[in-house]
Amino acid sequence: MSGLLRGIARIRTAPVLRGSTITQRANIVTRPAKDKFGPAETIIGLTVFSITILVPSGWVLTNLENYKKKGTAESE
């Protein structure tokens, strides 16, 4: 029985012992950006990001009563 367990342990730890063939590295750069972002680009980016987050949640909150009514109609 212990031989079987050792064999299973070897199979499971073999890839760890061999090391990975693909090395992933984060592309982190500590120097300044090549192209500076202007105030217009920053405002557009923040606006799009805010709309992307706030509009769907606002839609759900606006129609919350409708969703509650649908849930009670289906259960009856």
What topology emerges from the helices and strands here?
Elements: H1 2-18, H2 39-62, H3 64-75
Give a written overview of the molecule.
By secondary structure, the protein is mainly alpha-helical. It is built from 3 helices and no strands. It has helices spanning 2-18, 39-62, 64-75. The protein is flat.
Key structural traits:
single chain, 3 helices, flat, transmembrane, 76 residues, mainly alpha, Cyt_c_oxidase_su8, transmembrane helix
Our measurement of the CA-to-CA distance between the termini, rounded to an integer number of angstroms, reads 58 Å
Average pLDDT metric: 80
The global form is flat
Content of β-strand: under 5%
Give the low-confidence spans: none
Overall strand count: 0
Order of helices and strands: HHH
What's the helix count? 3
Quaternary assembly = single chain
Structural class: mainly alpha
What is the percent of helical residues? 55-70%
Please state the CA-atom Rg, rounded to the nearest Å: 27 Å
Membrane topology: Single-pass membrane protein
GO biological process, one term: mitochondrial electron transport, cytochrome c to oxygen
Family: Belongs to the cytochrome c oxidase VIII family.
Protein name: Cytochrome c oxidase subunit 8B, mitochondrial-like
